[in-house]
Amino acid sequence: MAYYRPPGPAPDPLLVRDLTRLQDQLRSQVRLEPLSAEPRFIAGCDSSFPTPETVLSVFVLLRFPTLEVVEKVYHVGPVTLPYIPGLLAFREAPNLLLAYEKLRQKPDIIMVDGHGIAHPRRMGIAAHLGVELNQPTFGVAKQRLTGHFVEPAHSRGSIAPLTGKDGELLGEVIRSKDNVLPLFVSPGHRCDQATATRLTLACLRGYKLPEPTRLADHWAAEFKKEL
DNA sequence: GCGACAG
DNA sequence: ATCTTGTCGC
């Protein structure tokens, strides 16, 4: 799975340089800290692409810890950038922000579909969104972007650290369900690893993906059909 | 120089 | 992310 990728158009090196600088700029604003209070609302977000040039972003708001859905919104906009590893936020965050604005009730924390600080420059889309919204965020990704880890046990609840070169903790690899590929959880902004992991586990309901992300994923695909 | 590479 | 059928295992 994804072992080999056919060669794609080489991204403009100058654009990559500028976006990387913007990313480092935003990184200086990231704060890793525990939540000030237990969340009452948690949101999940995700994007889908109805056409190669159209982005559809979804936000699902759930009451915590019951996880009942209280609101779901979406926004459709134009794609302005191709997918470039490490620069995902510049492709999806703009449209996600517009979808976020449509929420009547704002969440206490957001679970993002992607990495937090488990990123080459510690600035994954979860951290990026958190800084731009000045809101607590953390990431839950299905695939590793960077860092090393030892396969966690195959039983639900097993956890292994995701570390960078020099041992810094980038995130945690979590087996959310028996015998399924593990999830990569890392803090984004105004959140810490313990909180990110605790909330991820608290949002599991028998599926591989925690409810916020699973539902956002579900609606991103569902709304897409209605177009 | 050779891999690796979220969604 | 997206395209796409059947199939294996709990």
From TrEMBL:
InterPro entries: Endonuclease-V. It catalyses: Endonucleolytic cleavage at apurinic or apyrimidinic sites to products with a 5'-phosphate. Keywords: Cytoplasm, DNA damage, DNA repair, Endonuclease, Hydrolase, Magnesium, Metal-binding, Nuclease. It comes from the Bacteria. Its main location: cytoplasm. It is found in: Cytoplasm. It is an enzyme of class 3 (hydrolase). Mg(2+) binds at residues 46, 113. Its cofactor is Mg(2+). The keyword Disulfide bond does not apply. One of its GO terms (cellular component) is cytoplasm. The keyword Transcription does not apply. The record marks 83 as: Interaction with target DNA. GO terms for biological process: DNA repair. It holds the Pfam family Endonuclease_5. GO terms for molecular function: deoxyribonuclease V activity; magnesium ion binding; RNA endonuclease activity producing 5'-phosphomonoesters, hydrolytic mechanism; single-stranded RNA binding. Coiled coil: none annotated. Its EC number is 3.1.21.7. DNA repair enzyme involved in the repair of deaminated bases. Selectively cleaves double-stranded DNA at the second phosphodiester bond 3' to a deoxyinosine leaving behind the intact lesion on the nicked DNA. Belongs to the endonuclease V family. This is Endonuclease V.
